[in-house]
Amino acid sequence: MAANISVSQHPIIKQKISELRNVKTTSREVRELIDSISRLMMYDVTMDIDLAPVGTEQSPVGTYTEMRVATKVALIPVLRSGLAMLNAASDLLHDAEIRHLGLFREETTLQPVEYYNKLPRVCGVDECVVLDPMIATGGTAEAAVQILQHWGVRKIKFVCICASKQGIESLAKKYPDVRFFVGVIDDVLDKRGFVSPGIGDCGDRLNNTA
């Protein structure tokens, strides 16, 4: 496994992904599970952000140095499925910028298509945290990384719940400076670009549009 891939070993994440895989799980339950898994995963994602002292405050029994997050972070949910991970990430990083990218995989060619991008002309953040529940072929993830690198961000973290072995390993090799945080990696990627056992079409399952 490449050094820039971090696969969660948390037993609660493993249990929740098992529940998420189940075809009988309702759209409401899918939304709740993705939110819950994302909250647990964000603990590792934020382990290396910088803190800075901002002054002295009073506790009930003494004084202390108040600390605040110093790293300027942008959260980048990939529409539409990445929105299901956004509340979890923004609750933890409540001062982060939120910038959306609209990308989808064309069904015939399996190539990514960009349809929404409102990034400002100048990058003013230290790092971007990309949110997308699934990495299959890796094409959409690669497009997101390229867009952000072109924007000029220095540090990119990509957070996904389920990835194919082929897709994540290809991405990690091509982008060694990007860190990939993954809930689970599945071995099978079929000719249609679907991961097996996977978690299905996340957008459809989230929005009850299958």
For this entry, give a set of tags.
nine-stranded mixed beta sheet, alpha/beta, 33% helix, 13 strands, single chain, Rossmann fold, 210 residues
Question: What does it look like?
Answer:
It is an enzyme of class 2 (transferase). This is uracil phosphoribosyltransferase. Belongs to the UPRTase family. The protein is of the alpha/beta class and 210 residues long. It has a single domain, classed as Rossmann fold (3-Layer(aba) Sandwich). 33% of the residues lie in helices and 32% in strands. The chain is built from six helices and 13 strands. The strands form three sheets. Strands 1, 4, 5, 6, 7, 8, 9, 10 and 11 form a nine-stranded mixed β-sheet that branches. Strands 2-3 form a two-stranded antiparallel sheet. Helix 1 (11-21) packs antiparallel against helix 2 (27-45) and helix 2 (27-45) packs across helix 3. The radius of gyration is 18 Å and the shape is globular.
Instruction: Please indicate the percent range of residues in DSSP E strands (runs of 2 or more).
Output: 25-35%
Computed Rg: 18 Å
> What's the number of helices?
6
Q: What is the residue-averaged pLDDT?
A: 94
Number of domains: 1
Which CATH class is shown? Alpha Beta
CATH topology: Rossmann fold
Coarse morphology: globular
Helix fraction by DSSP (H/I, runs of at least 4):
25-40%
Note the run of SSEs as H and E: EHHEEEHEEEEEHEHEEEH
The CATH architecture classification is: 3-Layer(aba) Sandwich
Major β-sheet profile: 9 strands, mixed
Structural class: alpha/beta
Name the poorly predicted regions.
none
Distance between the termini: 34 Å
Q: What is the strand tally?
A: 13
